[in-house]
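Sample 1 of the test manifest.
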Amino acid sequence: MKDRLQEWVPRLVLAPSFLLVLLFVYGFILYTGFLSMTDSRMLPSYGFVGLENYQKLFALRHWNTALTNLAIFGILYILISSLLGLLLAILLDQKIRAEGLIRPIYLYPMALSFIVTGTAWKWFLDPGIGLENVMQQWGWENFEFNWIKDRDFAIYTVVLAAVWQSSGFVMAMFLAGLRGVDNEIIKAAQIDGASGFRIYRKIIIPMMRPVFLSAFVVLAHLAIKAYDLVIALTGGGPGRATELPATFMYSYTFTRNQMGIGASSAIIMLIMIFSIIVPYLYSELKSGEQK
Amino acid sequence: MSAPSQDNAVKGSVITRAIIYVVLILFVIYYLLPLYVMIVNSVKPLEEIRSGNMMEFPKVWTLEPWRAAWSYAQIGVEPSGLRPYFINSILMVVPAVLLSTILGALNGYVLTKWQFRGHGIVFGLLLLSCFIPFQIVLIPMARVLGFLGVSGTISGLVLVHLVYGIGFTTLFFRNYYAAFPTELVRAAQIDGAGFFQIFWRILLPSSAPIAVVTIIWQFTNVWNDFLFGASFSDFDSVPMTVALNNLVSSSTGVKEYNVHFAGAILAALPTLIVYIVSGRYFVRGLMAGAVKG
């Protein structure tokens, strides 16, 4: 009797967490998926409309702006953060004297809330009191930098602040990767007379493939989820110039009372993230089991 | 992070090394600049920011913006400063972090030392839940919180953060306990120790490092959260990040930049202090969150 009980204790301990996640994550996904096929407006309603909300969604200029912005933001954010992270990691790996001091400085933005980051950059980039004003006061009378107020350029200020926040983290990932490289390989290449630059280009950087992949997955999923930073930095403006799917979902669902369309936009976001995360987790778990 | 590797350094001239240092220092400036701007301008009178230069030290030093941000700046309809919201955040963070960490430890223990049929699927589902875009749960969550009678309360926010923290805390403890020798557990079992005894006497005493990593990770995430706070809080349960955003983006009245900066630092301070005191564990959490397996 006691043994039987012992057998069930572990499952009973795990059960509350599992049930919570089952209901609050997967149940909720199903519910939102269902709502996306209903005529819900301000409140959920259960008139079934099939895929009509999705058709409406992709016909909306507002949503297409959000997708275009996500593409611009996502590509630049991932690309710049990865390259900058790699560059800083390689430079820091050159037996730098003050590494212990520099590394935490590159990484601290990751500890901040995006609202704090957004606030800092919002005023720093403000033409009236920020960078533009500073440069003009320092003598560059014609210096102009009003991207944050410019519909065509505001999205790049989001990239700037987001890169500031995450590139140190990518640096740390690459640094860990670089520290894992087998010294023997490098010694062998040096004996063959390869220059430092060549060794990095031909041997070390190709060995960083798994880190590039991890960085890509982390950054891509952060990009698709990006919400707080835009809210704090630009509020989605000027106009809709920095609207992203996450801000679109929120405003359609909660301020414009188009819950059906809001739900369908959330489903599209989920599909985007899962199409990146699921294959990655699957292969990670697979390779973990083989070890 | 391990010690600097000795041999993959580029063997270059003095000029190469000088360039490396210059680039590294330029980026030190890039990363510190926003923090510098926030600090310097949080101790300046507003007039000096408007007519002066953001990069320069204050001519007149004042702590008034800090006092305003903390205790009497207008936030929403109340001239209450950020203090009540700071307290809200603490009341929300402490239980959410502790509960999710305890559950994560137990889950990790079960998933590694008491595996049952289907444990892989359970873990997979918990893991995947870490990455969902939270927009997908906003609508049903609002209804469930209402149904439970906790909408707009701190308890409701604790529940939300607990639920969406379990995935990560379980992941951390599972990976940590996977490396813990199972023979010790089996030996204790043969000696007649039960499920909780083994956990309490054998695993828990050696869990301090991963507990610290998990607590820091959860603390940072919950403190910095904005989306849930903005969606599920009411006048008297608004957390710090949401209050800061209300302060900064309020469109009425004069823009008090110095108060905004002081407020932003106040909102950043708890996580920043944790980072400075235990950065090593913070980085480990980040890495564990990024590299699964």
